[in-house]
Each structure stands twice: as C-alpha cells, then as structure tokens.
Design brief:
Number of domains: 2
Largest sheet: 10 strands, mixed
Radius of gyration: 25 Å
Strand content: 15-25%
Number of helices: 12
Distance between the termini: 32 Å
C-alpha cells in the first residue's frame, strides 16, 4: 500500500555547475519529501575517471559534499530524503566524505546507501571477449576500434536500485551513472509500491523526472517568452507532486520567482527528445505523446494519462575515449572595420603557421567572429550595420599535441604585428587540452548487475 497519498519530489541540480542556491532554497522555502540532485553528464564521467586515476579518493561530485554540509540540519529537521548521482565513478569515496560531514554535525544513525554496478570500465575486455561488441550507436563501429583510448564506460542504470536503497531505510542515496528521470522515479516506486510491470505508472514517473531533470528549465528558465518571467534571480526550482495512480502536478514553492504554465512544461517536455512515442529507459518505454496537460493556475500544471510499454532488453552505455587535442583562443578587434580586421587576423594566423610547416585542414579549424552573427549564421541576418567590435575566436584540433600547441603561439603576436585595434588578450597562450570523444553503445541487461549497500553514521 502507498505510504502517502501525495509525495513531493524536487530536483535541485540540473547539472554539475548549477546554482548552489537551488537545493538550499528548495529545502528552506517549503515542504518536501525528497530532494534529487543530478550532477552527471557524459563528459563529466571521463573527467571524474581521470581524477580517480590520479587520486583514489576522488572521482565524485565534490559540490555535493559541501551542499550536504550546508543543509544537513534542515534535512534532518524536516525529514527530507536525498537522492543524488554525485557518486560519479567513485560512489564509496563520496559516501565516506558525506559520512565525515555527518560526524562533523554529530548526526548519529543516519543511513546512507550506495548504488553501484554502472562502472564497467574494469570489465571491458571481459565483456568484449564474451561477445559484447559495444558498437557505436551512431556509426555501427565496434568498440575495438578505440578500445586502447577508452577512459570511462558507464551503464545508465534504472530506478529500481534507488527504490531498493530507500526500501532499506536509506535517508541519503548516492549513485553512479543512471538515467536522469530515474532520480525521481526511484522515490515514487518506493513510496507507491510500483512493480516492474506497472508500465503506465513507471512511464508517468519517467515523464515527471524528465520534466524536472534540468532544474528550472520547466519553471521559466531558458524560456522563449522570457519577458513574461518574473524574478529569474530567485527562480523557483521544480517540484513534482505525485499520486499513486501515476498522475502528478508540476509546481514550485509559493513566493519564488519564475512560473509554471503549460508552455514552460511543454518547453522542457521536448528537450533532448528523440521519438516522443518511444522514450526508452531501462525501466519502461514511455509514450510522451499520450499525456495530457492541464493548467490549474497558481503555478500548477497537472499531467495525466501517460502510457507505457515494456522496456528493451539492453542498457545504454556511455563510453568516453581520448580523441586528440584542441586549443582555442580569442582576441577582440575594435574600432572602424572591426569585422574586416578580424578576418585579416584569422588569415594571418593560418598563413604564418603554413609558412612554418604547420597546417590544419578546414575540418581541424575553428573560426568565429562573435558579434557578426556567428550564433545564427545562415539562419538570421544581423542587419545592424558594421559592428564596432568583434571577438575573434580561433581554434584547432588534431592528434599531434605539439602541432596544436604551435598554433597557440600565433595569437599574441597580432597585438603588434596585425591590424590596429587588437585587444582583449589576457589568458596567455592557449595550450593543448585533451578532446574527449563520446561513444554511445548498448549492452545486454543480463551482463550488468546493480548493487545496493547501506551504511549508518556511528551512534
């Protein structure tokens, strides 16, 4: 039987780097049952893997630990449970760090859970030998083509391991990689007792998680009619008010900025959307085209009627690999004929490199003239005459690190050996940095096993 008639699940982080005020305000500004926090993106996993390779105590989202330190008293006072994918590639290290925060605050007997099993990097060779080709979903190429350059490999786990952790009494759940909507779906499975075959309800929970996964993008952030949005400075982060039958309402705390309307919700519904009738997750295939929205007013939009079907027999895998080097730098050209001078500076750089035997193909070059319709090139005309200043942004990429570094030596000289009006260079020579390639693949579910462990802070 459901434990509650309504469950309030809020998401306070849309990505690692989102405002720290989002979760702080969510906990302080009104009632909550669950606070979810989404820190991970594809490139983040590779960065965390590199951190862990250098230091075995790293490899997780350190911002999460600082956040728990800041809001722990409120979490305990209000009984708010936390679900976060802050574990990255080292969830146990993240748990240890959070345990240290609990001890600092004298919080005894708080139960922490770790969900793992998503990191298959140590098993890659075993899996390949066992017939998992992990072919690139875009190109069809087998992973063996880049195997020696792979830096991370993580499966998108579903929501049921999170529900299992909550079933075992966890008050803070730390996961590695999983689906973004699963952070919200997991608590709903736990609270309402949904099973693996409750496809319509699982689909509804998935839609709810998708709507709030990007934080305030459904409450007025990044909204087309942005002039209608009030007080974006203190925009309210989204809350799912869910019922056991799968219907739910998207809202925010009273008195906060932003707004919740059918249009703000629609904007987020189509975000990162493939086939809306077949939104694939490890838990369910959700039909986003089946739902109905109802604007209840007062920043409340009801969602109902979501339909779902059985999930596929595979998990998606996010694999990152070393894909060469890049360097990017910029200058500002000011005064009359700023755009023409910026174009000349670009030509000078490529000519000087070619003279020194260092050439890059068009595919290896980046040339942008910011202020001269770069963002909407080919779509909308600037139509405002000559700009009085232009930011010239140049970059290169390639497999040869020394060649990429050589490019970085040609921007500064333009200050004295280019046209007049060159300024805005303050970052030093651009240096070669690694390019992280993304390799999406599929793996049979039977080859992956999630594990849930629960620990308690000392009494």
């Amino acid at each position: 039987m459901p434990r509650k008639e309504k469950v309030l699940v809020a998401n306070g982080q849309g990505f690692w780097g989102d405002s720290i005020l989002g979760p702080v305000r969510l906990v302080n500004e009104g009632p909550l049952d669950y606070l979810t926090l989404d820190y991970l993106a594809e490139v983040t996993m590779s960065i965390l893997q590199k951190q862990r390779s250098r230091n075995p105590t790293q490899g997780y989202a350190t911002d999460f630990v600082r956040l728990v330190d800041r809001i722990l008293p409120q979490l305990l006072e209000k009984g708010v449970k936390v679900v976060a994918n802050a574990g990255g590639v080292n969830p146990h290290a993240c748990m240890d760090a959070v345990m240290g925060v609990l001890e600092k605050h004298g919080a005894k007997g708080v139960r922490l859970a770790v969900v793992e099993g998503d990191d298959i990097l140590p098993r890659l060779d075993e899996l390949l030998a066992g017939g998992e080709e992990l072919r690139n979903m875009d190109t069809g190429e087998p992973l063996s083509k880049v195997r020696e350059r792979v830096t991370s490999a993580n499966v998108y786990l579903g929501a049921f391991p999170i529900a299992e952790a909550l079933d075992k009494g966890a008050q803070i759940v730390i996961t590695g990689r999983g689906t973004d909507p699963g952070l919200v779906l997991g608590p709903l499975i736990h609270e309402f007792g949904w099973g693996p075959g409750d496809y319509d309800r699982l689909a509804a929970g998935t839609v709810a998680g998708h709507i709030v996964e990007s934080g305030p993008q459904c409450t007025g952030g990044n909204y087309t009619d942005w002039r209608e949005v009030k007080n974006l400075a203190l925009v309210g982060y989204p809350i799912v008010e869910a019922s056991a039958d799968g219907s739910f309402t998207i809202t925010k705390h009273d008195g906060t900025g932003g707004m919740v309307t059918q249009d703000t919700v629609r904007h987020q519904l189509v975000y990162e959307m493939g086939d809306p009738a077949r939104y694939l997750t490890p838990d369910v295939t959700a039909d986003f085209a089946s739902l109905a929205l109802e604007d209840l007013g007062h920043d409340r939009v009801r969602v109902r009627g979501v339909r779902g079907e059985a999930p596929t027999g595979t998990y998606k895998v996010s694999i990152s690999y070393e894909d060469g080097w890049k360097a990017v730098g910029q200058l500002t050209l000011s005064g009359p004929d700023a755009l023409a001078k910026a174009r000349l500076c670009s030509d000078i750089v490529w000519a000087r490199l070619a003279y020194d035997g260092c050439e890059f193909s068009d595919e290896e070059r980046l040339v942008e003239f910011l202020g001269a319709n770069t963002c909407h090139a080919g779509i909308a005309a600037a139509g405002r005459g000559e700009p009085s200043e232009v930011v010239l942004r140049l970059g290169v990429k390639g497999r040869d690190r020394s060649k990429v570094d050589r490019f970085g030596m040609e921007l500064v000289p333009l200050v004295t050996s280019g046209p007049p009006g060159v300024t805005g260079f303050a970052g030093g020579r651009p240096k070669a940095t690694e390019i992280i390639g993304f390799w999406p693949a599929l793996i049979r579910k039977e080859r992956v096993h999630a594990q849930v462990s629960v620990f308690a802070s000392p009494h």
